[in-house]
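Budget justification aside, the reviewers requested a transparent look at the raw inputs and outputs of the sequence design task funded under Objective 1. We therefore reproduce one unedited record. The lines immediately below are the structure tokens for a 319-residue chain.
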């Protein structure tokens, strides 16, 4: 019952609550990265997880690996002496997150290559989880994704893929075909309505609904994945598994910071998957985990433990 993740984690700086940076401003330092968020979320839910990446041989790289490891995640991250750890800056306005800027070009993680992957680590896992963010980092990371997915397929390890499209990293015309190919190679695909439309070459979805989510899931399933999960935000989530459709309504929550909710959803869903839960229960676990993260500031700090997730009604945590 183990999950392996692969992707970039960056140092995270947050501007003052009022937004303006002046001389002498203190900027809190943290970390953030989709795949490590999922790994931390799984670890808190009692699922052994491994995170594979590259970081710079610098203070930020040391921070990233130390923080992820401190959460109980097995860290396999090469320290690169020739490239820095990526950086993102969360700009605040009125005390709330307003915009995130990324400084990751030429980062250590953009130099990921197949040589960074130990085949036995993938072969021994129950699930390999990757995302479209890694594909956007450059040719090396993209080749690494193809390589690690190939290793997983050969070993019988299930492949989980979160589309995680980032318009700031690459344009839709370039991203669409690459992400669609990766989704087709996965066993489980996670996407928002707009991401699903991107993969299918459709117009963006303006008004998400369970019905529209189901339609998108059915279309995506025709390309290869056995399970397609469409995250509908405040509505909840819908999944197509085989020929069966499953829906789960969202947990009502007052949103403080939505960043990281999608990663939390994936962690909750995968915790159910590796525990043998049915698809609807996996959706409910994902919804509850995503809601928990929305309640507090930060990308991953609000990821729930098993006890905390159990307190979310009407969720029943599978033992």
């Amino acid at each position: 019952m183990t999950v392996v993740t692969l992707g970039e984690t960056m140092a995270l700086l947050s501007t003052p609550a009022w937004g303006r940076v002046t001389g002498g401003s203190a900027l809190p330092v943290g970390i953030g990265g989709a795949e490590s968020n999922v790994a931390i979320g799984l670890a808190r839910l009692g699922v052994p997880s491994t995170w594979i990446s590259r970081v710079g041989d610098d203070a930020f790289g040391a921070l990233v690996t130390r923080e992820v490891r401190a959460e109980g995640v097995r860290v396999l991250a090469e320290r690169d002496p020739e490239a820095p750890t990526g950086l993102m800056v969360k700009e605040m306005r009125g005390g709330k997150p307003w915009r995130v800027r990324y400084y990751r070009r030429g980062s250590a993680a953009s130099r990921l290559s197949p040589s960074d992957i130990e085949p036995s680590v993938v072969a021994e896992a129950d699930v390999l989880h990757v995302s479209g963010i890694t594909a956007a980092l450059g040719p090396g990371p993209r080749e690494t994704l193809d390589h690690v997915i190939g290793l997983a397929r050969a070993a019988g390890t299930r492949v989980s893929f979160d589309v995680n499209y980032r318009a700031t990293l690459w344009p839709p015309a370039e991203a669409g075909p690459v992400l669609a190919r990766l989704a087709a190679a996965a066993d489980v695909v996670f996407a928002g309505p707009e991401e699903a439309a991107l993969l299918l070459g459709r117009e963006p979805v303006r008004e998400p609904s369970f019905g529209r989510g189901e339609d998108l899931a059915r279309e995506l399933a025709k390309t290869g994945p056995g399970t397609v999960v469409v995250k509908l935000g405040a509505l909840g989530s819908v999944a197509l598994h085989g020929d069966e459709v499953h829906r789960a309504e969202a947990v009502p929550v007052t949103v403080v910071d939505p960043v990281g909710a999608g990663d939390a959803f994936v962690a909750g869903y995968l915790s159910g998957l590796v525990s043998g839960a049915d698809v609807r229960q996996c959706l409910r676990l994902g919804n509850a985990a995503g809601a928990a993260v929305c309640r507090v500031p930060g990308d991953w700090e609000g990821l729930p433990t098993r006890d905390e997730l159990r307190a979310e009604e009407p969720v029943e945590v599978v033992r």
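Residues 315-319 have pLDDT under 50 and may be disordered. The two ends are 12 Å apart (CA to CA). Computational costs for records of this kind are itemized in the attached budget.
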